Amino acid sequence: MEHIGVLASNLLSPIILLFVLGILASLLKSDLKLPSPLYNGLTIYLLLAIGLKGGVELHKTPVSEFIWPALITLLLGIITPITAYNVLRRLGRFDRINASAIAAHYGSVSAVTFIVAVSFGTMNGLTSEGFMPAMVAILEVPAIVVALMIAFTREKRAGSWQEALHEVLAGRSVMLLLGGLIIGWISGPDGFEPISPFFETGFKGALALFLLEMGVITAKRLEGLKEVGGFLIAFGIIVPILHGILAIWLGNMAGLSVAGSAVLGAMVSSASYIAAPAAVRIALPEANPTLYLTASLGITFPFNITIGIPIYYAFAEWLL
After folding, report:
1. Taking the domains of the chain in order of start, what are their residue ranges?
2. Any idea which architecture 1-319 has in CATH?
3. Is the pTM of this model over 0.85?
4. Is Transmembrane helix tagged as a keyword (predicted)?
């Protein structure tokens, strides 16, 4: 019952309700829409905040405690977009561009799912390792890069391997995440403190506003799901569970606690709606946002919040 209460509280949070408001506003044909400069500014803010906070946590953690979980997370960031891409291509018959765009989302991380997973463990007396926020940035970057590189190398797009790699690494999303991670690591807690109120206090508010626009965008493209809705729904539930179980098993092998393994499972099972949409919009503008946004926000996100996270904790406790 306690778990149900925690989950209900999260589902009724302003962040989720603003997402729903965006969907309703669009379905009711309201003129509600964030100005493009504001949307771009929110994207920059959120990506940089995640990178900076991850870097600060990394600065405080001894290398011996961090190295194996970090390597496992990096490995998962490479494996998961590849498995997602192949499932979408071979079973879902998606074209390469859309399969790559969706795979980028399912390889990277939902920051809110990560926060809820940590909170769920805390509410039940289980505390994850303090460096877990750094894993968000470590998981985010390779997953997006791998998924986008698949599109660039297999679709015979304009440019070479080197040009494609430069476009991905020099893109706004990866640049902000990696740059923030490095700056946070160099600065440490003392250096980050003067700017922490801006990046910490305002983070959830900015995320809520970002999700309002995501709701508007998702609702506008729901019609596109009629052709592939059944497969995408199954994909959005089954693939995250498999990714989550794999992450918990590897996290256990890397020495993470029950809570740490479960949080890693929730991270790997989640689908991004901050970094990946921004990266895909820049690198794969022809990809259909209806598919990747609705799959990540409309299917996987609510599934993980309501059912997935308890499953990951239960599996981690059983395994350990």
Report:
1. 1-319
2. Up-down Bundle (1.20)
3. no
4. yes
